Amino acid sequence: MRETLEQLLEAIAAQVRVCVDCPLHITRQLAVPGEGPIGAPVAFIGEAPGADEDRQGRPFVGRSGQLLRKSIRDLGWSEDEVFIGNVLKCRPPENRDPLETEIAACRHYLMAQLVLLRPRVVVTLGRFSMNLLIGPNLVMGSAHGQHMLRDGQLYLPTYHPSYILRDNNRLPDFKRDLARAKKLSELPAE
Questions:
Q1: Residue 83's beta-bridge partner residues?
Q2: Which of 12-35 are b and which e, b meaning 16 or more Cβ less than 10 Å from the residue's Cβ?
Q3: Residue 35 carries which DSSP code?
Q4: How far is residue 170's CA from residue 185's CA, in Å, rounded to a whole number?
Q5: pLDDT band at 97, cuts 50/70/90?
Q6: How far is the C-alpha of 138 from the C-alpha of 148, rounded, in Å?
Q7: How sure is the predictor about 190, in pLDDT bands with cuts at 50, 70 and 90?
Q8: Dihedral-angle region of residue 36 (phi above 0 means left; psi in -120 to 50 means alpha; beta otherwise)
Q9: pLDDT tens figures, 39-71
């Protein structure tokens, strides 16, 4: 069964790599499907690839990715134990915010990935993934670090690592939020 799920996850990634559902395919170098194993206890979902990700085809490999990946390791996980991905699978020009039409075009890929992965906790990194996955009216300042159950899935919103790089005062909040996600992922299943 696990092998079949892994094949389905790879099939989604293959579709992402050739996707032409929105204009972002015109300017991308490489699509960024996301990476991580079936059975990952946690999925970290950001908003969109940046320039480094666009060049490498991997999520969170630039400066903000280095912060995220170090924070994951600091919690005792290896990077290949968790899923790391984004709402959008292609980089918006100049790293601008995702457009609603782009989110709508990519949404089905992310939702299919999450159905296959079935993580214990989905950590939303920033407002775009939080608003898509948990609720459109949530505000990060009051929502971060608060776990929420929606449609049987446990979510924990936190700041995007790129925001932490701009406002280092939020680093302790970010670290606490990720530590909370780890604890939640380790709770016995109900």
A1: 43
A2: bbebbeebebbebeeebebbbbbb
A3: B
A4: 23
A5: very high
A6: 11
A7: low
A8: left
A9: 999 999 999 999 999 999 999 999 999 999 999
Q: What is the dihedral of CA 38, 20, 46, 140, to 10 degrees?
A: -130
For the chain, give every domain's residue range.
2-186
**Angle in degrees, CA 189, 180, 172, rounded to 5:** 170
pTM above 0.90, yes or no: yes
Beta carbons of 60 and 69 less than 8 angstroms apart: yes
Q: How far apart are CA 106 and CA 143, in angstroms?
A: 24
Residue among 91, 83, 80 at smallest CA distance from 31: 91
Residue 100's Cα: distance from chain center in Å?
Answer: 17
* Contacts of residue 23, Cβ cutoff 8 Å, sequence gap at least 6: none
Helix axes 171-186, 63-74, angle to 10 degrees: 50
Query: Which CATH number, 3.40.50.720, 3.30.470.20, 3.40.470.10, 3.40.50.300, labels domain 2-186?
Result: 3.40.470.10
Angle (deg, nearest 10), helices 100-117 and 2-17? 160
Distance (Å, rounded) from C-alpha 107 to C-alpha 114? Answer: 11
Q: Structure tokens of 9?
A: 């996850």
Between the two ends of the chain, the Cα-to-Cα distance in Å is: 22
